[in-house]
TrEMBL record, chain A:
SUPFAM superfamilies: P-loop containing nucleoside triphosphate hydrolases. It comes from Bradyrhizobium australiense. Belongs to the ABC transporter superfamily. Ycf16 family. This is Fe-S cluster assembly ATPase SufC. GO terms for molecular function: ATP binding; ATP hydrolysis activity. Keywords: ATP-binding, Nucleotide-binding.
UniProtKB/TrEMBL annotation, chain B:
Residues 185-412 form the SUF system FeS cluster assembly SufBD core domain. The lineage of its organism: Bacteria, Pseudomonadati, Pseudomonadota, Alphaproteobacteria, Hyphomicrobiales. One of its GO terms (biological process) is iron-sulfur cluster assembly. It comes from the Bacteria. This is Fe-S cluster assembly protein SufD. Residues 31-175 form the SUF system FeS cluster assembly SufBD N-terminal domain. Belongs to the iron-sulfur cluster assembly SufBD family.
């Protein structure tokens, strides 16, 4: 069974249709890349999958392991294994990163009927993951994303992904704002999570990221639809010729 | 012309109540006279109502539907109940002074080993046998406020603490007001803290109910005098039962180069009003006040502060926060007066309200009356809901709506709690906020 199926999805925001019938099927173990010009609806798709309020789904459906995802609250989706690494992670002053991570992890575990992590086990796990992503300990003592640089915010998203071990990871422009070294470290973090029962959807503008995270499929989105799908070479083709050819197709 | 306003049933019942108990109240002679005078002043207006400017958001005539009989002395059962409740409020290293149903409870309190230069007596003892100066000081709060006048007339007990010049107390003093009686009753207490010169102390006031004790009315009043070069840290936590009333007043005066840091949080009681007057009597002094209301259901909480800048070179900071859910109603009235002599006054006031439901209400009434020309004064206010984008981020990470709200509320309240200097007291305040959050489910 596919992990994630988006079928003929139509989405409106404030009376304007943004997604006009989008279809995407993601099987366990696969890495999908979504590319497409600014405003083509990539973040909108990721938000609707994660359950952000303010979007009206007028047609189509999203299934997660065959279950109707659109019926679920955002936290239910997270507990079931849907993870979105945000294009623009928010800052949450006054909420210490460690406290946030523990509350979130334990909330997910509780929802799945698993036991909560003890404090020492939790700390050990966070430290390991943080170290592998080159995230200094003092960053974890601050408020969530407060005073983090753009790149640090992105690394904090990958840290959460590694900690929560989701089934489907949607990475919305995780490469924007990362320098070359940070990009490699983050990509290594993502690759370490690749597994036969986990899938990734990597949204990016740049072929470069796909040199590090090599996709099985590349989809081109334009004006709220997938206009072309192919293998990893499609990304190279795009890099060379741009999106104009597909915009005509849309 | 003597305007006699119509009094409602509750007001009338209070008059009768005073007539019944006056002879049993502590203190004869001058004190009985002072009580009578105070009661007459109260009785002219009766329970304050919304047509009095100061009470327009807190109409006690509408809110206080019945007058309860004066609380009886706590019996063994009440004391036992109270002892259990007090445990929840225990702070490491604090000296506990417990009032059960308005009566000092020596067995639950810690009076032994008082530091040199510190005296603690009960209000009853001071009214009955204390020196005249102290007795006079106990009647200084302004009876022009009807609820202060009522308290002056009815006060039965409390604690009177004196700290001599040069004594800096490490150990916090904690006055715990516990309602422990099985029958609903009215409780009238008054306490006093006199801090000498070059002295320092930390005072905590907690208002709680024993398990299962619900409807009662607490009327409290506090008098504080902070001497020159002295510092008082003050924490008040209102965690009264959900059907209770808490009407408290404070009158604080600061000498020169004194410092008063006060934090108050109301998460309990059905209806509460805290009215404090803080007066600068010496130059170069500073006041920081932080307040928090955590309200849900139909809770109503009113904080009314009067900052009286009478002398030059003093600074005051007031930050008031409200978190209001359901049909809760939070009121903040902040009045700052800068008198003609009070040049170089630096007075600021800020209120921030978080409304968690459409029916939640937060009223804010700032009043600045400035009669000096070389001053820095200002006030600001914000009202809003929790940030949707932050809530969604948290929910996308697996937190339920309530859990996500709780984290953001903790952060909002946490900023105020940060103002508490003592670590153990910060923990106490965090625990109180946590209890409120957990109770909302
Ligand atoms: N809340 C909103 N209100 C109005 N329009 C919106 C809203 N959210 C998105 N849109 C519009 O929907 C379209 C798609 O936006 P989206 O953010 O999904 O694009 P994107 O493909 O992620 O772009 P980028 O590559 O720049 O990140 C844009 O035209 C955007 O302006
Ligand atoms: Mg985007």
């Amino acid at each position: 069974m596919p992990l994630l199926e988006v079928k003929d999805l139509k989405v409106r925001v404030e009376d304007r249709e943004i997604l006009h019938g989008l279809t995407l099927t993601v099987n366990p173990g696969e890495v999908h890349a979504i590319m497409g010009p600014n405003g083509s609806g990539k973040s909108t798709l990721s938000h609707v999958i994660a359950g952000k309020p303010g979007y009206e789904v007028t047609d189509g459906e999203i299934l997660f392991r065959g279950e109707d995802l659109l019926e679920m609250e955002p936290d239910e989706r997270a507990a079931k294994g849907v993870f979105l690494a945000f294009q623009y992670p928010v800052e949450i002053p006054g909420v210490a990163t460690m406290n946030f991570l523990r509350t979130a992890l334990n909330a997910q575990r509780k929802a799945r009927g698993e036991s909560e992590f003890s404090t020492p086990d939790f700390l050990k796990k966070v430290r390991e993951v943080a170290k592998s992503l080159n995230i200094p300990q003092d960053m974890l003592k601050r408020g969530v994303n407060v005073g983090f640089s753009g790149g640090e915010k992105k690394r904090n998203e990958i840290l959460q992904m590694a900690l929560f071990e989701p089934a489907v990871c949607i990475l919305d422009e995780m490469d924007s704002g990362l320098d070359i070294d940070a990009l490699r470290i983050a990509a290594d973090g993502v690759n370490a999570l690749r597994s036969p029962d986990r899938a990734m959807v990597v949204i990016t503008h740049y072929q470069r990221l796909l040199n590090y995270i090599v996709p099985d499929f590349v989809h081109v989105m334009s004006k709220g639809r997938v206009v072309k799908s192919g293998g990893k070479d499609l990304a190279l083709e795009l890099e060379a010729s741009g999106y104009t050819q597909f915009e005509d197709a849309a | 012309m003597n305007v006699v306003l119509a009094k409602n049933e509750t007001g009338r019942a209070l008059s009768e109540s005073f007539a019944v108990v006056r002879d049993r109240l502590p203190g004869g002679g001058k004190i009985a006279e002072a009580r009578n005078t105070a009661f007459e002043v109260y009785d002219r207006v009766g329970l304050p109502h919304r047509r009095l400017e100061d009470w327009k958001y807190t109409d006690l005539r509408a809110l206080m539907r019945e007058v309860l009989p004066l609380a009886a002395e706590p019996d063994a059962a009440a004391l036992k109940q109270a002892a259990a409740a007090v445990k929840l409020q225990a702070i490491k290293g604090a000296r506990r002074l417990v009032l059960v149903d308005g009566v000092f409870a020596p067995k639950l309190s810690e009076l032994e080993g008082l530091e040199k230069g510190v005296t603690v007596r009960t209000l009853r003892a001071v009214l009955e046998t204390g020196d005249a100066a102290l007795q006079t000081q106990l009647f200084t709060p302004d009876n022009a406020n009807p609820m202060v006048a009522l308290n002056s007339a009815m006060m039965t007990d409390g604690v009177v603490i004196e700290i001599a010049n040069g004594v800096v107390l490490k150990q916090p003093l904690q006055i715990i007001h516990v309602a422990g009686g099985a029958t609903p009753a009215a409780i009238f207490t008054r306490s006093l803290l006199r801090l000498g010169e070059d002295a320092g102390a930390t005072l905590v006031e907690s208002y709680i109910a024993a398990d299962g004790v619900k409807a009662y009315q607490t009327h409290d009043s506090l008098i504080v005098a902070i001497g020159d070069n002295s510092r008082l840290d003050h924490v008040r936590l209102i965690e009264d039962g959900r059907d209770a009333f808490n009407i408290s007043s404070a009158a604080v005066t600061l000498g020169a180069h004194a410092h008063f840091n006060t934090f108050g949080m109301t998460s309990g009681a059905a209806v509460s009003r805290y009215q404090a007057t803080i007066a600068f009597a010496g130059e170069g002094s500073r006041v920081e006040t932080n307040g928090v209301n955590l309200l849900n259901g139909r809770q109503h909480a009113d904080t009314t502060l009067f900052m009286d800048h009478a002398v030059p070179h003093c600074a005051s900071r007031e930050v008031f926060r409200a978190v209001v859910d359901d049909r809760g109603h939070s009121v903040f009235q902040g009045r700052i007066v800068v008198r003609p002599d009070a040049q170089k006054t630096d007075a600021k006031m800020m209120t921030r309200a978080l409304l968690l439901s459409d029916d939640a209400e937060a009223d804010n009434k700032p009043e600045l009356e400035i009669f000096a020309d070389d001053v820095t004064c200002g006030h600001g206010a914000t009202t809003g809901a929790l940030d949707e984008s932050l809530l969604f981020y948290l929910r996308a990470r697996g937190l339920s709506e309530k859990e996500a709200q709780a984290l953001l509320i903790q952060a909002f309240v946490g900023e105020a709690i940060e103002s508490i200097v003592n670590d153990d007291l910060r923990e106490l305040a965090i625990a109180a906020a946590q209890r409120w959050l957990e109770a909302r489910g």
